[in-house]
Amino acid sequence: MKLSNINLFWVILILTGCSNNNTFIRITYPEGNVKSLLMSYDDGTIEDIELAKLFNDNKIIGTFNLNSEYLGMIRGWPLQNGDTVYQEYISKDLLYDVYKNHEISAHGAFHKGLTSLTDDEILIEIESDILNLQKLTNRQIKSMAYAFGNTNEHIAKLIVGTGLTNARTINDTYKFDLPNDNFIWNPTCHDSRALDYLNEYLLLESPKLTVFYVWGHSWEFKDQTRWTGITEFCEQIGSRNDIWYAGTGTFIDYLNAIKKLEITQSKIFNPKENLPIWIELSSGIQILNPGQKIKLAAKEI
User: pTM score, two decimals?
Assistant: First the structure.
C-alpha cells in the first residue's frame, strides 16, 4: 500500500524488529516538526531588500516571485481611482545578495493577468519568466504566484507542463491545511491579516502536518503601520524550533517525497532516489534515509 493522499500522512504504526521497542510512528517535517511557515512575496520591488533582511534576522525563508522583464526598471501601474503608482524593481546585479537565503520563483515576465490571454500567450509569459530567472540566478525555478491571482483549472493544467511544481493564488482560506491542488494553491492569508492568526497557529496542537502560508507585496510596507505589523509577526513566529521554515518549492518537494514512501503490512521503505524523510518514533525522531526501510506491522487509524 503506497501513500497516495496527503490526508494519510498521519499514520500510526506498531513497529517490530527494533531493539528500542518503538511502538508508534508518524511522518513529520524536518527535525520532527509538524508546523511550517511559508512567506510568499510578489513582484520583486526594491522593498524586498529590507524584507529579506527581516526574514534573515528571524531565520525565516521567503519565496520571492519576480517579474523578470521589469528587473532594474521603474514602472507605473494605474490604480482604480485614476492615480498611478510607480514601483522600482530590484536590479539584476542584486539578485544573489538579496535572495541568497531565499527561494526565487516566477510571477510572469510582464505581470500579465493570465485569464485574458490565449494558451500560447500564457506559456510565453510564464516560460520566458522561468528561463530569464534561471539564466540570471543559475537556479532551478520551481514555484510561481499568479499575477493578480488570475487563474482557473485550465490555466493550472497549462502551468503543470512548464516544469514548475506549484503555483499560488490570492484566495485566502484562513486555515492551516496542506494544499488540495499544488497548482491552485490557496494561501492562509494576506500579511495584513497574519497577526490575527499568529497566536492560533503558535498554540495549535495537531497530529497532522500543517502550514501557515502568508503572501503579500513588500512595496505595501511603505506604510509604516504595515511594516510594524510584519516586523512583529516575524519576530514572534521566527527563530523557533517547532516550525519548519521553507520556500514553497522545497515544501512541495518534501510533500511529494512523502507520497513516494512505500508502506506495506511489514515495512516502511524510502526509495533510493527519494529525499530523506523524518519520522517520529516513540523513542524520538529518526531520519528515514533514501534506500532505508523499517520493519513493522501496520495499523492505520
Answer: 0.90
